Task: structure prediction
Amino acid sequence: MLGFFKKLDNIKVGAPGSVFACETDGCRIRGAVIKSGGGGVDIGPVVESRAVDFRVAVGELVEQLEEQGRKPPKKALLVTPSAVGTLLELPVSPANPRTDEQMQELIRWELEPLFGQQNDIWSLGSLLMGRGYLTAEQRELVTKEQSMGQDQTGKRKSAPFGEVAIQLNLISREQVDECLAIQEQLILVNDDLVCGWAPQVSEEDAMAPGGEDVYAWYTVGIGKSMSGAWEKAFRQNGLTLEWIYPQLGNAFALTGSAKGEQLLIEVRQEQMAAFRGRAGQLSAVRMAPVSNGLPDSLDLFALCQEQLRPDLRTVYLFAPGSGSHGLADELAGHTGRKVETVTLEGKPDPQGLAALAGAAAHYLGRAPVNATARLNAQPPKQPLWKRRELYPYAAAGLVLLGVAGFDASIRYEIWKNKKKEARLEEQFEEKMSIKKKVEGDASRGKVLEESIVETRRELDELIEKNRIFEKVLMERQESVPGMLKALAGSVSDEIILNSIAESRTTAGVRVTGWALTDTGAEIFLSRLNKALEQWGFRVTGVEVSANRGRLGLDGYGFSMWLVPLISNEVALG
Result:
């Protein structure tokens, strides 16, 4: 049963039509509203922020879009190199997967070494280069000077990279401090990994009886603290970060690999990668670091040489910011294959948006579901009874139940009285008939006359009672929504309502509950009393005492009466 509700909680009806897609390289973040198009995806104007703080950076993206008269969708995704991915052979069949907890443990064990290596891309030199403060040549110069340093005794001693760059008058102290602040955010030691995965075998192979003992899975991981920091940054700007994608490999969804096996070479500052296969059925993933930030064509050839199959006549290259056309021509000479740069809908990609477009195409359902793997950025949902934001609604539900119960009792009383009224009407008619028959008999007539008078008196009382009940019911239908609104609006995170009961003997409603602190109880009672005034009610008979709540926490139990303003004090009990 619990599994059923868990699946129900994750159901989404239909593919989304748009998403606020963002990509960070650690030195900046850019974003665009991407929508489903006729043949793929449509990318809106791109906005960018260089702010160091995650929250400020996301806020600047939103502000820039709003200045253009565009409002980003509430749902967002993030592409980041902090999420690292690779292809693993796991003893898990896609037709019979393990539980999420088991898959997390299995993949985390395999990804931890790779995740540690990924932190190496956040060196001070790479960040200074990524922020545009150093060129690749200047960075290489600083590295050489750094290795030639000596101490006062003449022994070789390597000075800090930033200090050497400052001594060479290439950068300022402020630029070094800025990049050190970025580095502190990006390198999180001993951070727990959260993982995502996607099978990379065909449906026929996965379902075939007596299949392989191990299966290919594309797996990704990111530090839990890093994921939480980005989720918080988007949430503080009114957005919901749903998924986090790795930066490397997303462009593979745009290479037309549905036509057959393809080879994608992706170049980023500090690292390069090769992906061979087709979308949803990767055959190989290779990654390698790059010295001094950017590779040359021979580095790329060494990376992909083992992946050059005879039937692979075209190699795709995605190298944003690295002179992709020049690299493509040189790589074609080394490989003897045609090398094409990745395009967007058949058009050039001068802004290097293919990774962002690939992730958005996957999110919007315009790419195979297993074309890449992603990570859920949202924290696990708590059980309903632990979610404090639902407490006001629970209070409203209690009030509604109380109102419904009282309303049902009033209607039952009206029904009983009307039934009794009909019976008395019949008796009255019967006695009037008897009176007509025996009106000649004076003595019997007198007795019947008195009986008729008594019956009429009872009938009048019942009619008056019904009139009063109907008046009370109408008054309650007007006042109860107000009482409900007052109660729901006064409940805070420290308050739990236990019961709401209507008194059958006095004009009042008795409310009991529990507060985490006595101050919280007093604030709740004060707010409620003030909110009830406009609805003609007030709080009286308040009792507060130390008590342990239903969650096992020490706090304060309280009880009170809600009575009409014109009512006298009610008896408590």
In short: The first strand starts at residue 18 and ends at 24. Residues 1-13, 568-573 have pLDDT under 50 and may be disordered.
